[in-house]
TrEMBL record:
<dbReference type="InterPro" id="IPR006439">
    <property type="entry name" value="HAD-SF_hydro_IA"/>
</dbReference>
<dbReference type="InterPro" id="IPR006328">
    <property type="entry name" value="2-HAD"/>
</dbReference>
<protein>
    <submittedName>
        <fullName>Dehalogenase</fullName>
    </submittedName>
</protein>
<dbReference type="InterPro" id="IPR036412">
    <property type="entry name" value="HAD-like_sf"/>
</dbReference>
<dbReference type="InterPro" id="IPR051540">
    <property type="entry name" value="S-2-haloacid_dehalogenase"/>
</dbReference>
<dbReference type="GO" id="GO:0019120">
    <property type="term" value="F:hydrolase activity, acting on acid halide bonds, in C-halide compounds"/>
</dbReference>
<keyword id="KW-0378">Hydrolase</keyword>
<dbReference type="InterPro" id="IPR023214">
    <property type="entry name" value="HAD_sf"/>
</dbReference>
């Protein structure tokens, strides 16, 4: 979406670096006290534009935020998720807002046992408070969980710190692998059923 918005104002050769910085600012925006997700996106985009000397327009931040609810899962997600969901209860812990999450969940095609958002927890991942909210509401312990994520920064570090021993890193190239966090690594979600012996 950001590529679309800024294609006429940013040289294509610089777009990857702009998006990298936007990702860093989004991460920074979720580390403090909870605020609505549209503010997270808008603040991160504004800060990125300021760093890059591009004029920030409120409507662009809102446009990007509204687009999130229209995005579907990666192509490799629905089929294995349905398969895993037949044997294990699936739980989502998302940084999306309550008004966005249901449209994203519907696109997964799998039966989801529970959905928790940062809005409900009043904390964004990677903050431990978000994970603790999920664990408390599930009435389980960290040892009961298998945490699957494509983000070391947002998910797997926090899961490790909380004592979730069963972790899977779906390496989509978003974060560099950090094996010290003791996870199984797969290239896409298609590898999850086999990892679980299904």
């Amino acid at each position: 979406m950001a590529r679309d918005i800024y294609k006429d104002r940013l040289d294509p050769s610089r777009m990857d670096a702009f998006l990298r910085d936007f990702g860093f600012y989004r991460y920074d925006e979720v580390l403090g006290a909870w605020k609505p997700y549209d503010e997270v996106i808008q603040n991160a985009l504004r800060r990125t534009c300021e760093r890059w000397g591009l004029g920030y327009r409120d409507m662009e931040g809102q446009q990007l935020y509204e687009a999130i609810a229209t995005w579907g899962p990666h192509a490799d997600v629905p089929e294995p998720l349905v398969q895993v969901g037949q044997s294990f209860p699936l739980v989502i812990l998302s940084n999306a807002s309550d008004d966005q999450i249901q449209s994203n969940v519907a696109r997964l095609g799998a039966s989801i046992h529970a959905v928790y958002t940062s809005q409900q927890a009043h904390a964004y991942k990677p903050r431990l408070q978000a994970f603790e909210y999920m664990i408390d509401n599930l009435g389980c312990t960290p040892s009961d969980l298998l945490h699957v994520s494509s983000s070391v920064r947002y998910d797997l570090m926090s899961a490790h710190f909380l004592g979730i021993q069963n972790k899977v890193f779906v390496n989509r190239g978003y974060d560099p692998p950090i094996p010290a966090y003791e996870y199984h690594e797969i290239a896409n979600l298609g590898g999850l059923p086999k990892l679980l012996g299904l």
